[in-house]
Design brief:
Radius of gyration: 41 Å
Strand content: 25-35%
Distance between the termini: 44 Å
Number of helices: 12
Largest sheet: 8 strands, mixed
Structural class: alpha/beta
Helix content: 10-25%
Strand order of the largest sheet: 15-14-16-17-25-24-23-20
Number of strands: 37
């Protein structure tokens, strides 16, 4: 028999005073007024009552007093919650590890909404069986661990912590949770092994490690359990049904930008054959559908094609009621056009200005033209050091130091000794073109006339994009995460009298605006609407936006918009990414970026319960985790108290009557 007190010390003091007060009421002497009567014969009963209420008289037997004291005693026993606990072997310290990863949403547990709710019930039952000498802590883990309640013997605090835990959409990594438990049971030492002054900082404290999970995590090998005694309580079954989307993306056809192609992979990760229809929707409008019929362990690739010129948000869903619904839906999108900032430092270049102001270029580029004298100003130094521009074009000039961004040099070299001219100015005949590089795509340049140019020697890692009879004429080189493009000839030049004259006929060719557009897309980072990146739930999403934006709004379907600040270099970080879906990043009612959150985790979608787990070079077999519930008798005591109370009223009524 064990007891669980429901009252504090002050409450028990008040409870003890109740029977004392009842007894005092029976000793109480009533104050009566004297009345003269001719005879006492008729008042014999009254005289007897005076004897009873006299404090000097011995307390007589009273059935009512006995019943009232019995009622108070039964109430006190009920508040002690007497009961019999199930026998549980324990080290005196319990570490509850609760798996809150996405796979715990699997609905293959009869009588419970999912595996997670079953795990919470099992932990709650174990908390109720704790003795007063036992202490416990609660750790939840998905892709990261969180200590929800440190060691305590108070069941109320453990129950409150357990009630706050929620299942997540994240993947599983149990190592962090094991390290949190390891800190208790395996005390550390003051120095490295072999030091003569090495001492142990604390006594070893063995603990029971109770892991409530489906085992859907990697084997933990580089970890020592030490004084932890593990028990793996398996949740779920080993034969679930699950048809999962493990990949989904969309991209535009390079040759036909209005044509969008979507690709998906569907895998049967369950133990039974599965049939479903995969439906592709755009803004809740059905675009296409495809049937899926897969035996266990097989996969199929799906492809869809449609036309759309705008940024789009796509959703692919499987119409199947399997045990794990989270991976039945996937999201993808195409990012909108990105506007880039380009600074052009030039003494004057009409062909370059015209190319940057074509309808296509102006749609993705905001350009600013300044004279070479601007390079010596404080405004330029701050601008280049902050990386405020996506691309800086230096036409026939060069800065003292390189900026924190990509650059394009026309007719001049970057500062430093890594770039050199290979030849003196001379006539140029183009002989080679790297058509595989994105900046040289769709270009025909062998008919160009170039009056004067010089070949280039670039730094280590340089790539020749355009070759001539005198050597490399266009070179691209990496620089600490940035890229520098150098053109070995001028577009326009000045004669001896300062008059502007052309050095090539490139500006008159159709390839010139195409080349500038390629530079904006590749070197400045302005690409046509392309596939939106996909991240996993809980990931921190880092985006580079227009630096002129002070803040943006992030929102996905069914959620409230969130304001996120943008850094001076245009970078922003988004951390509210727990829910799958398409997230739109907007500024002033304009979509500036888009990304998707998807599970896409084969390990998490493989929901069959693991029969055993590897923890620190030890294989732990699965256990059911059921505990014998505590049998409590306080309800019967309350019923008995009510029965005695009814008897007391019956006796009182008969006596008064």
């Amino acid at each position: 028999m064990s007891w669980i007190s429901t009252l504090t010390a002050g409450g028990w003091v008040l409870m003890i005073l109740v029977p004392i007060g009842i007894i005092l009421l029976y000793f109480l002497k009533l104050r009566r007024e004297p009345v003269e009567v001719p005879s006492t014969y008729l008042w014999a009963k009254t005289i007897e009552d005076l004897h009873v209420n006299s404090l000097l008289q011995r307390l007589r037997r009273s059935l009512l007093l006995f019943l009232q004291l019995l009622i108070v005693g039964l109430a006190a026993l009920a508040m002690l919650r007497p009961g019999i606990r199930g026998e549980m072997a324990s080290q005196g310290r319990l570490v509850f590890l609760l798996d809150t990863s996405a796979s715990m949403q699997t609905t293959d547990v009869p009588g419970h909404r999912n595996r997670f709710e079953r795990a919470k019930q099992l932990i709650g039952d174990r908390i109720e069986t704790m003795t007063d000498e036992e202490t416990a802590m609660l750790v939840a883990f998905s892709d990261r661990a969180e200590v929800l309640q440190s060691f305590t013997s108070e069941r109320r605090r453990l129950r409150d912590a357990l009630s706050r835990v929620e299942v997540t959409n994240r993947s599983t990594d149990v190592l962090g949770a094991l390290k949190a438990a390891d800190g208790l049971a395996n005390p550390r030492r003051t120095s490295e092994i072999g030091d003569v002054n090495d001492v142990q900082v604390a006594d070893a404290k063995p603990a029971d490690l109770l892991m409530y999970s489906d085992g859907g995590f990697q084997n933990v090998t580089e970890f020592s359990l030490g004084n932890l005694i593990p028990e793996y309580i398996a949740l779920g079954t080993d034969s679930p049904t699950n048809l999962a989307i493990t990949a989904f993306s969309a991209e535009r056809n390079v040759e036909k930008p209005s044509e969008v192609q979507a690709f998906a992979t569907v895998v049967n990760l369950g133990s039974q054959p599965a049939t479903a229809t995969a439906s592709l929707t755009l803004e809740e409008e059905l675009l296409d559908a495809s049937g899926v019929d897969l035996p266990p362990g097989e996969q199929v690739g799906l492809s869809f094609a449609f036309e759309n010129d705008e940024a789009v948000s796509l959703k692919l869903s499987l119409d199947i009621d399997d045990d794990f619904a989270l991976d039945n839906v996937a999201f993808a999108g195409l990012t909108p056009l990105r506007t880039v900032s380009v600074l052009v430092v030039t003494p004057g270049n009409t062909p370059l200005r015209l190319a940057l102001n074509t309808p296509k270029a102006s749609k993705i580029c905001v350009s600013e033209f300044v004279a070479p004298a601007y390079l010596s100003t404080d405004a330029y130094k701050q601008r280049s050091a902050a990386g405020a521009d996506d691309l800086i074009i230096y036409d026939r000039c060069s800065p003292e130091t390189m900026p924190i961004t990509n650059t394009f040099f026309v007719g001049d070299l970057p500062p430093g000794e890594t770039w050199k001219w290979r030849t003196d100015p001379s006539g140029v005949v183009l002989v080679d073109l790297d058509r595989t590089h994105p900046m040289m795509r769709y270009l025909e340049l062998f008919s160009l006339l170039i009056f004067k140019g010089r070949s280039i020697d670039g730094p280590a890692g340089s790539m020749e994009l355009l070759g001539a009879d005198i050597g490399p004429m266009m070179v691209l080189a990496p620089r600490d995460g940035y890229q520098d493009l150098v053109l070995g000839f001028e577009l326009v030049s000045e004669d001896g009298s300062g008059e502007t004259q052309t050095n090539t006929n490139w500006y008159a060719e159709r390839s010139w605006p195409v080349f500038v557009l390629n530079v904006l897309r590749y070197l400045a980072g302005a690409a046509e609407a392309s596939g939106a990146p996909s991240f996993k739930p809980g990931d921190t999403v880092r985006l580079r936006l227009e630096s002129a934006l002070p803040q943006v709004t992030v929102q996905h379907a069914g959620s409230e918009p969130t304001m996120v600040p943008v850094g001076p270099s245009g970078f922003t970080e988004i951390v509210m990414t727990d829910q799958p879906g398409n997230y739109q990043v907007t500024a002033k009612d304009r979509v500036v970026d888009l990304f998707s959150i998807n599970l896409f985790d084969t390990r998490e979608s493989t929901i069959a319960t693991a029969p055993s787990v590897e923890l620190g070079y030890e294989s732990v077999e699965a256990a059911s985790g059921g505990v014998e519930k505590r049998k409590e008798y306080w309800r019967w005591l309350l019923l008995g108290m009510l029965a005695v109370l009814a008897t007391e009223w019956w006796v009182f009524a008969r006596r008064v009557g």
